[in-house]
């Protein structure tokens, strides 16, 4: 059974049809590249899955169960986590503090219920270790490289044992070395059986990690191909419309 | 694949930390980098210099006096720090003091018991904070505008309620009210046990110390404190991770008003009278103390100790200038210069860069 299934989903904002009758699915441990030009409807589709708003038509199924999310927190309860483009990190806090933000571990009894800092640091260190990232839990996020920030944002998704992680442009605006780091993080997630939906404009990155590539154009799905059976040229053609559909 | 390529091109396998210079900070390094630490050093230096040069400065009487004088500012600086950490500001604290004093004073003049009067004053103050918090957190208005409005409203209400009269005929509970505001501990002989060298510290000071300990505890050990810093650092991120941002911001303004009410009631007791002008201009002194203590007006940084030390520093400068016989009209200039200097030196990179640039100009060692 598919981990996530999108069935004939449409979303319109007034007269604008942002997403038009799209169907696809994601299996556990699969990395799916979602590509398309600006305004192709990628973001709307991602927001539908992440629970920012429900679809106008159609259904989103998680583990075969129909879900209608109105808030991101509902999607998270179902094991769907989002790594936002700006990463949603507070850079005045440390890595461990960010990983546990909003779900801090406590110890003791009220009113002396205090943060269990050591446990949070240890758990974060373990998560970074699992991700093979050289990020230290006590470092301030402000002083981190782009790759390390990604690791913090991804470690946050591991905390709740998410089944599906949506990543919005994780490799935009970071250095070559950091891109390699982030792609390695995605492989780590896949290795642990987590499905990843990678939204990106960067062709080489998508080809490096994805099992399948979905191309959207003007709100519709124009291609859904195994990465091995396509080429960057074909995908470029599909995105621009030079190739109508595949 | 790409990862392997990068590694192949980099046979040394330099760890990220070697390249990026982000070594984990030691405790000492963190202390040296903190603004409150340097303000404390400056404060100690100032006290030592003054104590040596001015005999009347180093007396226990003056110590008791100074600690009592800055305590109300310090108490309110705790509340202000909480608000400033969230990235807001509370300009209404001075006016809230005035309103609280008048409301409590009115109930006392109507011969209600002191606890009822204090409770009514507290309710009036907290109501102001709740209005601030509602408009800032739930309506989303800028805190500067909302609290500026409250500054005007609370002061005006204080004037109206008091009919522009000073209130001092406090009825049967007047001695209790005065005892609260004028209490001291520890007492010297014959009433107490304290030795001659120990200052008799006022109740204001002890309230501030207690409050500072509580606030410090909350900042360091409570999820609520952690969330405050997260809101100041990246409000959107805090929201997305499920932090109840609006509720916490609302509470921050209520807490700030609570501290203003506390300070007001202590001063009311100390003076034995209530005037509607109480706390006029205090908001700026409180903000100055908070900022000197290292709170960042952009949000996300601040400490209870910083609020304490900042307010102590301001009062000691004022007192020192007075003792040194400098015309009191110069106080503003000195205090203002110290605000700018403290923040300049506290800036993580900018301050040091500016200082370095100035030194470079003044002492050109070599031509490039």
Notes on the protein architecture:
- The complex is a heterodimer of chains A (246) and B (368).
- Chain A is of the alpha/beta class.
- Chain A has a domain at 4-90 and 161-240: Rossmann fold (3-Layer(aba) Sandwich), CATH 3.40.50.300.
- Chain A contains eight helices and twelve strands.
- In chain A, the strands form three sheets. A six-stranded mixed sheet of chain A has the order 6-9-10-3-11-12, sandwiched between helices.
- In chain A, α5 packs parallel to α6 (176-191).
- With 368 residues, chain B is mainly alpha-helical.
- Chain B contains 17 helices and two strands.
- A two-stranded antiparallel ribbon of chain B has the order 1-2.
- The longest helix of chain B is centred in the C-terminal third of the chain and has 27 residues, at 245-271.
- The two termini of chain B are 45 Å apart.
What's a concise summary of this model?
Chain A is an alpha/beta fold. Chain A contains eight helices and twelve strands.
Secondary-structure topology with pairs:
The complex is a heterodimer of chains A (246) and B (368).
Chain A lengths: L3 E10 L2 E11 L4 E6 L5 H9 L6 E6 L2 E3 L4 H6 L2 E4 L11 H5 L6 E2 L6 E2 L1 H14 L15 H14 L4 E5 L7 H16 L3 E5 L3 H7 L2 E6 L2 E7 L5 H9 L6
Helix pairs in contact in A: 5-6
Chain B lengths: L1 H7 L7 H5 L6 H6 L2 H19 L6 H26 L7 H17 L4 H25 L4 H20 L11 H9 L1 E2 L15 E2 H19 L1 H11 L1 H6 L4 H27 L10 H11 L11 H20 L7 H16 L3 H13 L6
Antiparallel strand pairs in B: 1-2
Helix pairs in contact in B: 4-15, 5-10, 5-13, 5-14, 5-15, 6-7, 6-8, 6-13, 7-8, 7-13, 9-13, 10-11, 10-15, 11-13, 14-15, 14-16, 16-17
Structure classification of chain A: alpha/beta
The top-level CATH class of one domain in chain B is Mainly Alpha
Strand content of chain B: under 5%
Give the overall form of chain B: globular
Hey, which two chains have the biggest interface? Answer: A-B, 41 and 31 residues
């Amino acid at each position: 059974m598919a981990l996530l299934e999108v069935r004939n989903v449409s979303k319109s904002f007034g007269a604008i049809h942002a997403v038009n009758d799209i169907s696809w699915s994601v299996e556990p441990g699969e990395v799916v590249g979602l590509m398309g030009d600006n305004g192709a409807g990628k973001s709307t589709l991602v927001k539908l899955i992440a629970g920012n708003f429900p679809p106008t038509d159609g259904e989103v199924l998680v583990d075969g169960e129909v879900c209608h999310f109105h808030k991101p927190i509902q999607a998270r309860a179902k094991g769907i986590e989002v790594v936002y483009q700006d990463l949603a990190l507070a850079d005045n806090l440390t890595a461990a503090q960010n990983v546990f933000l909003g779900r801090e571990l406590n110890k003791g009894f009220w009113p002396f219920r205090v943060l269990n800092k050591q446990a949070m640091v240890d758990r974060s260190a373990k998560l970074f270790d699992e991700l093979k990232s050289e990020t230290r839990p006590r470092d301030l996020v402000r002083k981190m490289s782009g790759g390390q920030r990604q690791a913090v944002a991804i470690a946050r998704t591991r905390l709740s044992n998410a089944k599906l992680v949506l990543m919005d442009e994780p490799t935009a605006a970071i250095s070559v070395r950091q891109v390699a780091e982030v792609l390695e993080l995605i492989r780590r997630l896949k290795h642990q059986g987590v499905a990843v939906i990678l939204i990106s404009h960067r062709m080489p990155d998508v080809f490096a990690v994805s099992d399948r590539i979905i191309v959207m154009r003007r709100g519709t799905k124009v291609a859904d191909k195994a990465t091995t059976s396509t080429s960057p040229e074909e995908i470029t053609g599909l995105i621009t419309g030079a190739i109508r559909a595949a | 694949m790409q990862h392997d390529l990068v590694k192949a091109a980099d046979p040394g396998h330099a760890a990220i930390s070697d390249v990026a210079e982000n070594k984990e900070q030691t405790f000492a390094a963190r202390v040296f980098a903190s603004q409150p630490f340097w303000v404390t050093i400056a404060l100690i230096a100032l006290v030592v210099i003054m104590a040596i040069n001015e005999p009347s400065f180093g007396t226990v009487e003056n110590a008791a006096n100074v600690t009592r004088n800055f305590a109300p500012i310090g108490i309110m600086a705790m509340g202000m720090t909480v608000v400033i950490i969230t990235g807001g500001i509370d300009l209404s604290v001075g006016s809230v003091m005035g309103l609280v004093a008048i409301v409590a004073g009115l109930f006392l003049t109507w011969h209600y018991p002191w606890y009822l009067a204090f409770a009514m004053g507290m309710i009036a103050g907290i109501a102001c904070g709740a209005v601030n918090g509602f408009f800032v957190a739930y309506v989303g208005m800028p805190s500067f505008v909302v609290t500026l409005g409250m500054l005007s409203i609370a002061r005006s209400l204080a004037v109206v309620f008091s009919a522009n009269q000073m209130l001092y005929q406090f009825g049967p509970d007047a001695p209790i009210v005065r005892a609260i505001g004028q209490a001291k501990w520890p007492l010297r002989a014959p009433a107490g046990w304290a030795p001659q060298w120990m200052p008799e510290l006022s109740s204001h000071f002890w309230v501030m110390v207690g409050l500072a300990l509580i606030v410090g505890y909350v900042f360091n050990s409570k999820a609520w404190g952690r969330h405050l810093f997260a809101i100041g650092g990246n409000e959107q991120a805090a929201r997305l991770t499920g932090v109840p941002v609006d509720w916490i911001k609302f509470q921050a303004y209520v807490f700030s008003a609570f501290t203003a009410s506390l300070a007001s009631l202590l001063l009311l007791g100390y003076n034995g009278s209530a005037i509607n002008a109480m706390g006029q201009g205090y908001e700026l002194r409180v903000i100055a103390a908070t900022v000197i203590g290292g709170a960042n007006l952009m949000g996300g940084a601040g400490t209870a100790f910083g609020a304490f030390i900042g307010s102590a520093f301001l009062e000691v400068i004022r007192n020192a200038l007075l003792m040194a016989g400098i015309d009191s009209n110069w106080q503003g200039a000195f205090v203002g210069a110290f605000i700018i200097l403290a923040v300049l030196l506290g800036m993580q990179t900018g301050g040091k860069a500016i200082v370095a640039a100035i030194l470079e100009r003044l002492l050109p060692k070599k031509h490039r």
